[in-house]
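Figure 3 (text version): structure tokens given as input.
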């Protein structure tokens, strides 16, 4: 759900923020045992910029998320649904029957007081984690493991969900949010449900300062620069665009059609490419 504002200032005229369905009551009081300080400046190593366009932004703590759902066959009660400044979806604080607490990604439909569990015999309902072999066809899932026991690494963004399309032997075909269909071992765990905050992609910050608070520095287009020494695209933009057959990086290498996958064997488990209509 999006919230709009009365345009009493130019920034508020186009601003749209997300109304998060959290139940903490006090957003400044997360579970202290699951917090870690974030040290060092983002995008820098010993003062040298290694990743451009990043800065510290507003002070925040990192919440430790249990992507592996490591406590198997132990029921847990949802204590709260909280905001996490480091990711798009909400997170849920779980309290297990043995007293241990942990955070997980909160799917749509998960509410305070509900019980969730991780294990082979878990029920197929939002928030439960179980092997792909135990999940029915057509079920929407998230937080999918690539290797058994590794912990969920795929489909973790706000509003995302993947669908189980078919089962073939020890492999399960899953349609990812990009439209790509890949094979996963049926021993890999996944969590049932679609992740919360589906409208996050539709927000409008309204002013540049909101981006700076999030740790994003300004980005200058290469074609807007005056001198070719600053960027290969710089120079006379009005005459010939970038002035070369294809786009290049700030350091001069070609970027049109450049392959970005380092591991060639990832195509071994590809059923349908996301670029094929």
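Below: residues designed for each position.
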């Amino acid at each position: 759900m999006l919230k709009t504002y009365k345009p009493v200032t130019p920034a508020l005229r186009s601003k749209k923020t997300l109304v998060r369905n959290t139940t903490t009551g006090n957003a400044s009081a997360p579970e202290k045992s699951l917090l870690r300080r974030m040290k060092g400046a983002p995008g820098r190593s010993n003062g040298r910029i290694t990743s451009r366009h990043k800065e510290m932004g507003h002070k925040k703590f990192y919440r430790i998320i249990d992507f592996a759902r490591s406590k198997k066959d132990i029921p847990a009660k949802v204590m709260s649904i909280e905001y996490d400044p480091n990711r798009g979806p909400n997170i849920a604080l779980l309290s297990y029957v043995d007293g241990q607490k942990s955070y997980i990604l909160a799917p749509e439909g998960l509410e305070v007081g509900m019980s969730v569990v991780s294990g082979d015999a878990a029920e197929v309902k939002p928030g439960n984690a179980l092997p792909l072999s135990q999940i029915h066809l057509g079920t929407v899932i998230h937080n999918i493991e690539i290797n058994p026991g590794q912990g969920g690494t795929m489909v973790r963004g706000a509003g995302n969900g993947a669908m189980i399309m078919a089962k073939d032997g020890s492999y399960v075909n899953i349609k990812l949010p990009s439209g790509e269909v890949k094979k996963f071992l049926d021993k890999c765990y996944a969590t049932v449900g679609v992740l919360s905050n589906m409208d996050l992609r539709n927000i409008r910050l309204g002013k540049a300062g909101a981006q700076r608070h999030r740790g994003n520095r300004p980005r200058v287009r290469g074609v807007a620069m005056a001198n070719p020494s600053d960027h290969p695209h710089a120079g006379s933009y009005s005459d010939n665009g970038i002035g070369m057959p294809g786009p290049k990086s700030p350091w001069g290498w070609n970027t049109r059609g450049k392959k970005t996958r380092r591991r060639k064997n990832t195509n071994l488990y590809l059923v349908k490419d996301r670029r094929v209509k």
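Residues 208-213 form the longest helix (6 residues).
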